[in-house]
Amino acid sequence: MLDLTIAIPVKNEAKNLPACLEAIGPDLAKEVIVIDSGSTDGTQEIAQEIGVPILSFDWDGKFPKKRNWFLRNHTPSTKWILFLDADEFLTPEFKNELRTTLPNSDKVGYWLNYSIYFNGKPLRGGYPLKKLALFRVGSGKYERIDEDHWSKLDMEIHEHPILQGEIGYIRSRIDHRDLRGPEAWAKKHEEYALWEAKRYLANIANPEIRNQWTLFQKIKYWLMGTPLISPAFFFGCFVLMGGFLDGRRGLKWACMKAGYFAQVYARIQQEKANIKTGHGS
């Protein structure tokens, strides 16, 4: 059993949580804990039935969100912490690589790779999904973004932990497979689009942040301010990153994601209009 805490932040994840916990298994980590923020679909009852401890989180719309709140107020006693979403299922290959990697590791954290499932099967192409979600307890926290009720999202979205030290890679993949269906995906990405728009406007207004952008970030934020963001993402996803290898599924996925970025652009324009007229979003 690894000197590891697996923390699963949730809200209304009754359809995903059982499979997520089953995939972890009973002998991988010293501690598994669910961080819940007011679920109303039986999520807490599922965790209780399985015997997994639950922490309740009540967000006030500002910093910190769920993961940073947990690290600040309920620091794990283990050496390592893995943040796992309820729609992320550990594979046998991933668990085996953890068992051989962590005990003698000199790294402070690890980038993790994910297989994206769409229409029941993993995608071969499209933009890869990677997260810095496994790191040493006490080595850092998620970046601070001082939002003020930007959305209803009470968990960090694109924030990464800020770590001091060498970061490694776990090659084996975690399965990212949301069992709640396309309606849940669409609703979640509506909130994402609003948050992206708010963050975009805050960042471009801050010279200190702009000066720290990488070339990729400069291109991304320029595109986000233009209607080119949606077709640019589609071309990158379906053509450059091999989404065509998945045939019709790859085309659907690229269209869905391109539609999301079109929504982000529309949100940005609406927020700009709100600022000019003095109205809230």
Relevant terms:
281 residues, alpha/beta, nine-stranded mixed sheet, two-stranded antiparallel sheet, 9 helices, 41% helix, 22% strand, globular
Commentary on this structure:
The chain has 281 residues and is α/β, with parallel strands linked by helices. It has nine helices and eleven strands. The protein has helices at residues 17-24, 43-50, 66-73, 92-101, 182-204, 207-210, 215-224, 229-240, 247-277, and strands at 2-10, 29-36, 54-56, 80-83, 88-89, 109-118, 121-122, 129-136, 140-142, 161-163, 167-176. The strands form two sheets. Strands 1, 2, 3, 4, 5, 6, 7, 8 and 11 form a nine-stranded mixed beta sheet that branches. It has a two-stranded antiparallel sheet with strand order 9-10. A hairpin with a 2-residue loop joins strand 6 and strand 7 (121-122). Helix 5 (182-204) packs across helix 9 (247-277) and helix 8 runs antiparallel to helix 9 (247-277). The longest helix has 31 residues, at 247-277. The chain is globular, with a radius of gyration of 19 Å. The mean pLDDT is 94.
Question: Can you give me a brief rundown of this structure?
Answer:
This protein is of the alpha/beta class. The chain contains 9 helices and 11 strands.
Largest pleated sheet: 9 strands, mixed
How many E-type strands? 11
Coarse morphology: globular
Oligomeric state as shown: single chain
| Cα end-to-end separation | 48 Å
- What is the average of the pLDDT values? 94
Alpha carbon gyration radius: 19 Å
Secondary structure elements and pairings:
Blueprint: E1 2-10, H1 17-24, E2 29-36, H2 43-50, E3 54-56, H3 66-73, E4 80-83, E5 88-89, H4 92-101, E6 109-118, E7 121-122, E8 129-136, E9 140-142, E10 161-163, E11 167-176, H5 182-204, H6 207-210, H7 215-224, H8 229-240, H9 247-277
Parallel strand pairs: 1-2, 1-4, 2-3, 6-11
Antiparallel strand pairs: 4-8, 5-11, 6-7, 6-8, 9-10
Helix pairs in contact: 5-9, 8-9
